Amino acid sequence: MDLVNVSDISTYAFCPRLLYFRLRFGEDRITEMHAAREIYLSRRKGFDNDWAFERFKQLYDEPEVFNKACKNFKYNLILDEFQPIEWEIKLESNKLRLKGVLDEIVLFRGKKLPLTLALRKPDGDKVWFRDLVKITAFCMLLEVNEGLVYYCFDGELEKVEITRREKYQVLRLIERVLKVKKGFVPEKQKRRVCSKCWYLEVCNSKPSTFASKFL
Ligand code: SF4
Questions:
Q1: I need a labelling partner for 83 at 20 to 30 A (CA). Which of 116, 166, 195, 206 fits?
Q2: Pocket test for ligand 1, best of 130, 199, 202 (most atoms within 8 A of CB)
């Protein structure tokens, strides 16, 4: 059975076309998110930044990316109240047609909660929509109704309550991602991020599937 990756849902929520291009061409770029994840996981496992750097170097070998992330990374001591249980947990559900690797499960006041990592939080809102659907998807996989998002460069931990509304959004996105996986090309968006997008050139020249206008 074709399962949808949680990261695909999150990418679709950011830009549907970006998902199409990532599935089609792949994207091997190593970003500060990779480095921030190594720094976070090392700290939570009781190691220091030297260990995080060594892990990053062995896995990705891009020291400048690591050094940049290291300067921006903030560890909020509130995290110490959330006892880590497991890291990088593979989860999947055939029923939900969903799979993913969760950054961390923590124990807080007797409850096991999923925690996902991101870089910067939005102005005004608690979390970005792409982070909301990501944590919701992991909550659905773990059958819990609360999750956490840690913004590594702001040092802020956000608690998210999951209701029927968020679950509905994830289910809708699963269906849409499955369509894209079958070759459906979403509409081009006009967004500020387009100017920095890795796929800008190919995106400008790629027509969308006609039916995408009606989604
Ligand atoms: S250029 Fe814009 S619309 Fe196209 S994939 Fe990138 S972000 Fe999406």
A1: 166
A2: 199
Residue 29: band (very low, low, confident or very high) from pLDDT cuts 50, 70, 90 = confident
Class of domain 4-214: alpha beta
Bridge-based pairing of strands 111-118 and 146-151 is: parallel
How confident is the prediction for the chain on average, in pLDDT? 94
Asked if 139 contacts 114 with a C-beta cutoff of 8 angstroms, the reply is: yes
Q: Whose CA is nearest to atom 5 of ligand 1?
A: 18
The whole-number average pLDDT for the span 32-45 is: 97
> What pLDDT is recorded for position 211?
63
CB 41 within 8 A of CB 53: no
Pick the atom of ligand 1 nearest to 194's CA.
2
Q: Where do the domains of the chain lie?
A: 4-214
Q: What is the pLDDT of residue 214?
A: 54
